Structure formats: C-alpha cells, structure tokens
Amino acid sequence: MKTMKLFYSLAFALAVTLAATGCKHTPGKITPLPSENSGMVRNDTGGGTLPSDTGVGTTGGGQTAGLEDFDNMIQDRAALANYTVHFAYDSAAVRSSEQANLQAVASALSSDPSAKLLIEGNCDERGTEEYNRSLGERRSLAAREALAQLGVDPSRVRTISYGKDRPVDPGHDQAAWAKNRRDDFVLLHPKAGA
Known about the structure:
By secondary structure, the chain is an alpha+beta fold. The chain has a single domain (39-190), classed as CATH 3.30.1330.60. It contains four helices and nine strands; from the N terminus they run H-E-E-E-E-E-E-H-E-H-E-H-E. The chain has helices spanning 2-21, 99-111, 129-149, 174-180, and strands spanning 40-41, 50-51, 58-59, 62-63, 73-76, 85-86, 116-122, 157-163, 182-190. The strands form three sheets. Strands 5, 6, 7, 8 and 9 form a five-stranded mixed beta sheet that branches. The longest helix is centred in the last third of the chain and has 21 residues, at 129-149. The radius of gyration is 22 Å and the shape is elongated. The N and C termini lie far apart (83 Å).
C-alpha cells in the first residue's frame, strides 16, 4: 500500500512539474505577410511595391544583402518574364528542365553588375495559406541557391513568398495549378544617380 501511495505521489509530482515547465517550443521561420504600411521598396514602373522585410540574413547560398541595398530600386518585370521557373506539385526542387531559364537569369545578372534580383515564390490554390507561404519561400530560396551555384552573388538576390495570393491562371484545374506553381524573376535597377 505504501508503495502505491509513493508511486502515485511521484507520478503526480512529475505531472505537475511537466505541466509547469512544459516543452520549449521555438516556432519556425514565418514568412511575413506584406501589409499596406510595412516598409516597402518603391516601384517607379507602376508594378507595385516590394516588401522589404524578407530575404535578409544567411540562408543557403550565403549572406544576403541588407534591406537598404534594395531600397528605391526600379522594377523591370518584363526583362525576365520569359524565364519563369515552374515546380512539381508540393515540391520546391528545381527540375533539370528549368536549368536553361536559370542560366538565362544568371546571364542577365552577370551582364549588368549594378542590377539586383527579386525572386517571387508562388503556389497553386490548394493547401492552407501558411503552408503555401512556406512552400513559396522554399521555392524562391531553391532558385536563389541554384543561381548561386551558377555564380550569382546571393547578396544581389532577395526572395519573397506570395503563396497562393498571385495566380497567373485563375482556373481550378491541373493546367491552371501547373502554371501557378512558379518562381517569377524581377530585375531591379538602381535609380539614375543613385
């Protein structure tokens, strides 16, 4: 009987200790959602603004540039529009069939040392918003890493995830979803005199 009381007392003490201390949980990196009033990079070409709260730090391809290095750059969406990289469903792996597009992007950057690059990761409409933001981020970082392997300095590249917020095809079928699983590349030029 005394052994049972001791066992229950120890079990109760252990339960109370675990409940009081709990497990320390550190959330993973969360891709911030762009808001109207967050710090934005100005776009003088009429194509919108760039969130200035992503792409800073060390990831994959090395040290990336600080936010100030991308402030007030002018977006050129047309320059690399033909080199969009597409992904398989639920994947952030850059397919070998997309290497020619990445090589073209790397060549464009090597021909203009003052230019920088924004990689926009996108997903199809399936999945939660949080999941798609994370997947879009992994896709943009995978393209950044692939460009680094082609000789592009990672400090010239910013990444952002739009998740499922910017579909190019509003359809709800396999063909539309395949078009929406992509990385878009935006060439960034410094303003004249900057």
